[in-house]
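Worked Example 4.2. Read the sequence first, then its structure tokens.
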Amino acid sequence: MPPPKSPMIIESLLDTDLYKFSMMQVVLHQYPAAQVEYRFKCRNAGIDLVPHIDEIRTELAALCQLRFTPDELLYLRSWRFLKSDFVDFLDLFHLNEKYVEITPSASGNGEIEIRIRGPWLHTILFEVPLLAIVNEVYFRHVSAGLDLSEGRRRLQTKIGLLRDTPDYGGCRIADYGTRRRYSRHWQREVVTTLREGLGTQLTGTSNVLLARDLGLTPLGTLAHEYLQAHQALGPRLRDSQVAALEAWAKEYRGDLGIALSDVYGFSAFLRDFDMYFCKLFDGTRHDSGEPFDWGERMLAHYQANRVDPRSKVLVFSDGLDIPKVMQLYAHFRGRCLLAFGVGTNLTNDVGPTPLNIVIKMTRCNGQPVAKLSDSPGKDMCDDEAYLTYLRQVFEIPAKQAV
């Protein structure tokens, strides 16, 4: 039987991904006046979300009533990389629904518009819970009463494949599935089952609430929005990626040292990720493009900069399933340290087709910002002229980011 419905999908402000808190602290300390805009996109064709707008708005209103509890704040204070003034700020913090607009798309095709506009410091925590709300509201209606036994069977198959295949005991995964989970209850069941079935082969979860409740390590560093915002916050545009990495290092002084490599395409990243950054950061994360080629180029880049790749972490997190994790592990093991973040394939593989939904930053301080992805269809910007200019500045041919 499905779990009983809760009056709220999100019951705690910890029910989000770690990198939201790590980025938010940088915003508080370095960019407290920044103004931003985010927009929602559903990449699936033919999904009608309009009938669910009122329910999504109701869940949003409930989300905005939440506050961090004393126990939650005490947990956050236990992390060495969060500073006391930031946790003090969270003690006063709440999300405000005045910053969010949810309307039917003008196209009339069932799509919805979600726009988040306001101070970055006060809007950064909307993305993950709002995506989780849209997912759960949608699947409540399209798969009401779904028997989750098929999802449990698939999950046990994945666990058995990773756990029982010879020579893969060192292959470890983490849960990255909060944003596109089938439901809150299902993600908790999945992560609990992974912990019991995989033991040390489960390294942790990006979800802070589950990490706390299940005694796991919370995982994450930074997301695309952080580097995108620096297109409007940094010095000249060409130096924005370097400025973002420098600001991160200034804040964390060696903690949370995984750099994201695909905001301007991988070639542009490698041009900026010089010997200084190679030595300073613990590793890099792959989130678009062909992963084997990315890994080979990253290892060669470390070698060219006189850094032993075996001391650095390659984090793979782009649309992974367990077979792909195992292929990557077999290819790269012994040549570097490896980490794998698996999302939708763990937390929304129960039968119905998952939603491919995102909320991306599109403007900062009134200026357009964008990601030039290594994968087709992942770019998201409302200003084509700016995209053209960005490609020119970072020497990326049109419609190509490699």
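Now turn to a second chain, presented in exactly the same format:
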Amino acid sequence: MAVAVISGSAGLIGAEATRFFAAKGLDVVGIDNDMRREFFGNVASTLWARHRLQIELKGYRHFDVDIRDQLAVTDIFKRHNKNIEVVIHTAAQPSHDWAAKAPFVDFSINAMGTLNLLEATRQYCPEACFIFTSTNKVYGDTPNQLPLVEQATRWELPETHVFGRYGIDESMSIDHTMHSLFGASKVAADVLVQEYGRYFSMKTVCFRGGCLTGPGHSGAQLHGFLSYLVKCAVSDTPYIVFGYGGKQVRDNIHSFDLVNAFWHFFEAPRCGEVYNIGGGRYCNCSMLEAITKCQELTDREMRWSYSETNRAGDHIWWISDIRRFQAHYPGWSMRYDLDAILEEIFGALHDCALRSETV
């Protein structure tokens, strides 16, 4: 039976990928040790998602393994060997701010953990696809040098600019920029994934994501923009906007749409590929615009405040140009726009709150 190995299998993208690939008939082997709780506290734990997968998917096999543990990772791959047809690597330390507090932990997870998975793939299932959830933070703060124009609710690029109409493509340099330590560790992983594709002719791909989101996100202040924002709106928790007048722009892609892109790559893989992936011009918003939409959803004012201090290395404006991926995989398209994403997150949180009240 064909096997999919998914790291970070209880996280937002990992859990979505687990359900998606299981529905396509693959046996799923999940690797996840709930490090998100260590990063961001109990509120961000993914244990609930793991339990849900184990209940819903009878063939799901879970390994409570740290991807930094080379021997444990190798043992999983040795056990399933050439039955492994795809490795989907979503496990990561995902926060700028947290990385600065613990650089060795951040780098060992993001860089060395990726190397462990790549080498295990090369040794035991070299024909498998290796799909890596990278990040737009590999470009550092280079996007902040763009000639942005301040508008009423957002920063924006003139349409005449090379990135103005469709967003930022893969031609943007990753050099001579401040990445944050998180960005640097993800650059190391990104380049490793590319190198294993080019040097060893393995079927590897880096998806450089914008804001990845959906109802499966255990959002926290330091990571999970839309999920945490809606959570604050629903629970009437104070929210802080950091810098740029609250007009910083993010593109947002639903976890289903991203994992569907993974599937399209899996069906027709390439070696050493790189794609910017996100909501693009189809699905993006500024902080102020997102707050307004959350207030409309909850029918009340949010309690939010503004801090002049922006996060180091944070993007003022990011919209992904996704045309390269669309050209290679014209059968792929996005199902979720911003309103659909927010409504789904709101509905999931509202239902959860109701269940808690009845317990």
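Notes for the reader: Residues 354-359 have pLDDT under 50 and may be disordered. The chain has twelve helices and 14 strands.
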